[in-house]
């Protein structure tokens, strides 16, 4: 076997064989289920103007300051490999003039994303996501339906056992202002016990303290006030509407008041599907409502909600990879039979069957190759068969063999 010093760049990996089949199955299933919910698929560029992400992820966020792959192109423009998919979808809505046409827009996407972070199991520097966005819908039913679509995808993949939906509300603007004041008062009283990072957040964004990983912060967060006592009537009604619709959709959930989002354009619903089957990387799908994001892109107010999920993590949850398709091996015996074998293999392919023809070797070697390929049948055409307009069809599972007219091969093997 040839060896080389060249390896995939750190944090990237090749998708080959079983791993590719897992990956493809996740995306194909998500594409199929999202279409049942009326989502159309969009494909946005892999790189964007850096401002698309700096504006929407927050200039001081870890993603922007530490993880983005940003560089100047030859024209001196700052571009960034996309670290997530929602910002590009919102940018596409605005730049294609779709903010006032046929809303809401229900969009599905799938593709590679890029973040410079420490590689670990289920986390790469080039990774892949699927996502679903409903742009231009202010009703709580949109939140519930996009969540139900994500749950349906997990069910179709057979990974719903052990996956739990956790939901919270971030309320509306007045709700968050009242809650922010309550958090500041609570954490200020114990500021000396907060981590340095959380003391900084206390001044800039106290909600972010709620998802701190510091053990000391966690102890304080356990007794911190929740937003529920600070919801306006309108925000409370919205949250109850989401939960009622989830009940009707048959999506089980539990409330988690510690799910937060750090940027001001997020509002109302925040949610995560979590599992205990992936160790520390327990979130497999996460999202929420982002009513102010399209405005950040220069568009009009466009209430929206959506989620994203890591394909690598979802594929790790599959019990088994989908089986590779088992081909039919077409085997000519002698030069005179090669033309008929080529006609036969193309006829099988046109009929939708996976068919292989060996490029060289005698009958024994070609049969050995057919077995290595996991072929389900071998179609053998020699001079005698050619003269009779037939082929020998050998069932490689049962070990039986029969003569089949060449014109009937596709129908018989289907």
Biggest beta sheet summary: 8 strands, mixed
Class computed from helices, strands and strand pairing:
alpha+beta
Indicate the CATH topology of the largest domain. BirA Bifunctional Protein, domain 2
Order of strands in the sheet with most strands: 1-5-6-11-10-9-7-8
Give the low-pLDDT segments: none
Q: Estimate nothing, just give the exact number of structural domains.
A: 2
Task: Provide a count of the helices.
Answer: 15
Output the CATH class name of the largest domain: Alpha Beta
Portion of residues in beta strands equals: 15-25%
The overall pLDDT average reads 92
N-to-C CA distance? 38 Å
The helicity comes to 25-40%
What is the CATH H-level superfamily of the largest domain? Bira Bifunctional Protein, Domain 2
Q: What is the tally of beta strands?
A: 16
What is the gyration radius calculated from CA atoms? 28 Å
Structure, described:
With 414 residues, this protein is an alpha+beta fold. The chain folds into 2 domains: 18-172 and 232-317, BirA Bifunctional Protein, domain 2, CATH 3.30.930.10; 328-413, Anticodon-binding domain (Rossmann fold, 3-Layer(aba) Sandwich). Helices cover 37% and strands 21% of the residues. The protein has helices at 18-36, 50-57, 62-67, 86-95, 140-157, 173-188, 196-204, 215-221, 233-249, 293-296, 311-317, 338-350, 363-372, 383-388, 409-413, and strands at 40-41, 47-49, 69-72, 78-81, 105-114, 126-135, 163-169, 254-255, 267-275, 283-289, 304-310, 328-332, 355-357, 377-381, 390-395, 401-405. The strands form 3 sheets. Strands 1-5-6-11-10-9-7-8 form an 8-stranded mixed beta sheet, sandwiched between helices. A 5-stranded mixed beta sheet has the order 13-12-14-15-16, with helices on both faces. A hairpin with a 5-residue loop joins β3 and β4 (78-81). α1 packs antiparallel against α5, α1 packs across α11 (311-317) and α5 (140-157) runs parallel beside α9 (233-249). The mean pLDDT is 92.
